[in-house]
Hints:
mainly alpha, disordered N terminus, 66% helix
Amino acid sequence: MIESNCRSIAPAAILLTLVLSAAACSDGQDDSGAASGSAAPPASSQTMDEQLADLSEYRLSMDKIDRYIAVQRNLAQKAAAMSPAEREAMKEKYGDRGDSNANLDDIARNIEEVPEMNAAVREAGLSPREFALITMSMMQSAMAASVLQMRPNDDPDSLAREMKANIDNIRFYREHEAEIARKTSELQAEMQRLGMDEEG
């Protein structure tokens, strides 16, 4: 259920996958150890507690979700305009960025370093960091909503505090889940028409 919620709020687009692949459905709360493979990325400027505090204070809204979806639409259109060779070159250049320990700073930095991603985010009226905040807040809220659904007799406020999640964002997600699912389904259909769906 948690995995399907994650997929429903993050439809696949090639450039989005390149930037957020491993971070997209991780819990984002384990900052121990370096990424496997090449040298570790630059250290985050914030501690994990500070990152979680930023997430707990951030408030989701439908306008923010619409902008988040617009970023993915922009990315899909940019990817669709590339030739297969250009997409392959993009994968080779940026594809080794997956890190299950990725945090807000890492995601924002990755966005800024990929020109197409940076442009898609800014065209939707967001900064790279706010896009990262929306992404992580949505995933955190979707996962927390799934836990609350599986534990209906538990106190939701206590559970939210235990998960270091924002109870207002969880309520927002639960109240608007059908609308978010409809909008992301429409986006997925659009991506299929653009030939991007197979990237997910």
